[in-house]
Design goal:
Layout lengths: L2 E7 L6 E12 L2 E9 L5 E10 L4 E8 L2 E7 L3 E6 L6 E6 L3 E3 L4 H10 L8 E9 L4 E17 L6 E10 L5 E7 L2 E5 L2 E6 L9
Parallel strand pairs: 9-10
Antiparallel strand pairs: 1-2, 1-15, 2-3, 3-4, 4-5, 5-6, 6-7, 7-8, 10-11, 11-12, 12-13, 13-14, 14-15
Protein name: Glycolipid-binding domain-containing protein
């Protein structure tokens, strides 16, 4: 069960945004990721709880941020309920999309898991519902993912397979690289892996 800490920062000016303390693991039904976020000041910012089925679809998502809450799942596309800080107002949403995304590294692992690309695969288009900080506002985004390189790196615990993805935002054409090993993000815009207590899990397909 990988357990560790990511630091999140603004990808443009590198302003520190949060520390995300996480643990994740494959299970009999798929994969689960749980994390707590703290501000640079040490204040609690929110939490992420994401569970995927064996095909990489989100069977349960629960996000908390700034007293806002989102609960969602793959249902007729993706469906969610967003609750305001007072708890008095809840709005439902549904979009013909494949999955969810957001600032947490969990969503990069989840999208890669859903697409299951190989280095010989062509770029694949995916529609996601992004929940944007700090109030978890939903926004539909279209991306293209391509697995451009898969390399094995020698480590003390044996070879570590690293996948390099090229992710393109289809509305702007902006491209960036995402490096994953199993269920851990090694590097991505705005994300740095600061601490990892055990090796990444290896998914069995």
């Amino acid at each position: 069960m990988p357990r560790g800490r990511y630091s999140l920062h603004d990808p443009h000016d590198h302003t520190p945004l949060a520390q995300e303390h996480f643990h994740c693991a494959p299970g009999p039904s798929g994969w689960r990721y749980v994390s707590q976020l703290t501000a640079p000041s040490g204040d609690h910012l929110g939490s992420v709880d994401l569970a995927l089925d064996e095909l990489g679809r989100p069977i349960r998502l629960e996000l908390h941020a700034a007293s806002w809450q989102v609960r969602g799942a793959a249902l007729d596309g993706v469906t969610w309920v967003r609750t305001d800080p007072t708890g008095a107002h809840a709005t439902e949403g549904n979009v013909r999309a494949h999955a969810f995304t957001g600032s947490s590294p969990a969503f990069l692992v989840a999208t890669a898991r859903l697409l299951r690309l190989t280095p010989s695969s062509s770029a694949t288009r995916v529609r996601l519902v992004a929940f944007t900080d700090p109030v978890l506002a939903p926004r539909t985004v279209d991306q293209s993912w391509a697995l451009v390189k898969r390399e094995a790196h020698a480590t003390d615990n044996g070879p570590l397979t690293v996948d390099e993805y090229q992710v393109t935002a289809l509305d702007t054409g902006e491209q960036h690289a995402v490096h994953l090993s199993g269920d851990v993000v090694l590097a991505a815009p705005g994300i740095e892996l600061e601490d990892l207590e055990s090796p990444p899990s290896v998914f069995g397909d």
